[in-house]
Design brief:
Layout lengths: L1 E8 L14 E8 L2 E10 L9 E6 L1 H5 L10 E6 L6
Length: about 90
């Protein structure tokens, strides 16, 4: 599990079949209180938006958040962080 800040959205004209209806967001990961790298994450909460501080799950476990067919994602937004520690 790791943290990040949503910085934008991703528009895809074509998606893998099981990704239909799942929002893809651009997230800047945070390591040691500083921005690290930018990744694309699937939004399992379906409520995340720009500037939200979120926690993410990576790897195979990310696809398990969607509880339907296997969703091919490397990172998924699992929830929100209420207070910004920075």
């Amino acid at each position: 599990m790791y943290t990040g800040r949503v910085i934008g959205t991703v528009v895809a004209t074509k998606k893998y079949e099981t990704l239909e209806g799942i929002k893809l967001l651009l997230v800047e990961t945070i390591e040691n209180g500083k921005p690290a790298k930018t990744i694309v994450a699937a939004d399992a909460t379906r409520q995340a938006g720009p500037n939200d501080l979120v926690y993410l799950i990576g790897s195979k476990e990310a696809s398990l958040l969607f509880r339907k067919k296997l969703v091919p994602v490397d990172a998924a937004i699992a929830g929100f962080i209420d207070e910004d520690p920075m």
